[in-house]
User: Which sequence fits this backbone?
């Protein structure tokens, strides 16, 4: 693959049969590769991460989205994560040898095609949208339950498709963004009020870290709560700092951290920042990580051999 | 490259001209790639890390070693790291699609060839040697200064070459080993006695961690001391645990940790263990690191395309 794009679609389901059917669509397209998927019943949400090139990612995305629209009924859906549709959000992320602008173009093609084929209203967000329409929270305001009413407002007119929600799939949001870190922290309290207080201290819009969104959710099976976060710029706001402030604020309420997990893939830069902070490491960079350096050496070697074989012809 | 072997030679020099000349030898051989090198005047030692395949690594290693033998005079050498020769130790490490046994074979070829070409006595160590002759510390006992006497003892007879040190290059140790982590910690004390006490608490032979070797050195320019460690099995003995115990023992002497650094490459597993410990992350593995997952997807993609082009012929 000359260029690599990641897609991280979020589907409103935690039904294992539906999850399997959606993932199965990926196998039908060449040159796309599943990296990761997670789903759980308290968010009632599936997050998939896969990669492909400019052509294959669009084909695979349309197939997966079609399956989600076919199998998910939003009228039956309950979940703690804000959502407006079966295929709730479908971001495209430039990874290698590709610009964010190209990803914006892919998102627009994806949105247009989805709207035409399935009569699903589609909103653009992030870098694919005008600034005043770019915010995910704003697009999701009122969620699926209020969508029938909200979609009629002139400022909430979808970018593609009818200004009427799909009867079972609601609406879809798509766009392009940079790599971000998704990170969930489990607290040893079932008190959602306390968890919400802690989440607010971290959230950008409440005076927290400028690149962090944080929400609180109940995990009823475990009788605990969870802070779900996305850190859009983990370079500026390293994960260890967010974690330590979360710990401080939790301690204030006599709550402690039970465990954490990345939601989706882990960017290596965030691991480097964590190790460098706690172990006071001066000279840590991506280039000094053995497995990354091997990969770069192999790429050079491949180029060397290709050059040699061209010269041989 | 079908297979990848790493070599991590240690040369007894910190002279920038000599360092440059040694590294320059790598450029003369195709299909080898420099990953990293570090040197400093208090150890007076150069540590290089490079990769190649079964053929290229041997050629490049012989060239580098020849340059080290040519330019380094052990009679002028002072340094705090134990050493017996100009090309002090030359380990080969299996990284991909290659066995430790093949690396042992390469080490033996390297040792035999070096001895024949340069009349340098060569010792095998680690997995390339008989157990009773495998320990680096045992081979280096008395260091270069005592080598003329020690080499005459029957049990210290070299594996290759004459039982007489090379007049300027001393002797060389070679062998095969698995990937290990080299880690140095700087202490805010110039008291070498205290640093040695702390190092002893970590060292395997003194009742410390079974897979850790630790030594103390002065860093006169900065008026501090440094604990230099190698952790041969960083899976069993994760780096954060060694670091936290070091911190505890240092605090006992009212000494604190100023900074740390990896010596050589950083294995990603050690970063994962650090992040998982401090942030209590449950589900962190190499496969979930974005850059590693991309690499694996690209390898699959290359295989897919190669299969397709074979079928097309």
Assistant:
């Amino acid at each position: 693959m000359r260029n690599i794009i990641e897609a991280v679609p979020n589907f409103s389901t935690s039904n294992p049969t539906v999850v399997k059917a959606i993932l199965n669509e990926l196998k039908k397209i060449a040159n796309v590769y599943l990296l990761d998927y997670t789903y759980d019943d308290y968010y009632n949400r599936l997050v998939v991460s896969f990669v492909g090139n400019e052509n294959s990612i669009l084909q695979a995305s349309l197939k997966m989205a079609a399956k989600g629209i076919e199998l998910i009924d939003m009228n039956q859906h309950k979940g703690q994560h804000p959502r407006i549709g079966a295929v709730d959000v479908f971001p495209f992320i430039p990874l290698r040898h590709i610009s964010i602008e190209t990803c914006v173009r892919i998102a627009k093609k994806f949105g247009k095609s989805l709207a035409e084929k399935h009569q699903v209203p589609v909103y653009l967000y992030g870098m694919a949208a005008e600034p005043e329409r770019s915010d995910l929270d704003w697009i999701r305001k009122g969620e699926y339950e209020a969508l029938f009413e909200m979609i009629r407002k002139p400022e909430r007119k979808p970018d593609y498709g009818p200004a009427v929600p799909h009867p079972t799939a609601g609406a879809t949001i798509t766009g392009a963004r940079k790599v971000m870190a998704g990170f969930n922290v489990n607290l040893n309290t079932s008190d959602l009020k306390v968890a919400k207080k802690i989440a607010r201290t971290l959230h950008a819009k409440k005076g927290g870290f400028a690149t962090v969104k944080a929400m609180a959710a109940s995990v009823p099976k475990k009788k605990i709560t969870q802070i779900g976060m996305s850190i859009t710029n983990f370079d500026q706001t390293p994960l260890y700092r967010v974690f330590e402030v979360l710990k401080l604020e939790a301690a204030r309420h006599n709550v402690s951290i039970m465990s954490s997990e990345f939601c989706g893939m882990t960017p290596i830069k965030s691991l480097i920042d964590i190790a460098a902070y706690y172990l006071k490491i001066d000279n840590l960079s991506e280039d000094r990580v053995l497995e990354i350096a091997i990969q770069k050496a192999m790429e050079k070697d491949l180029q060397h051999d290709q050059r040699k074989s061209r010269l041989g012809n």
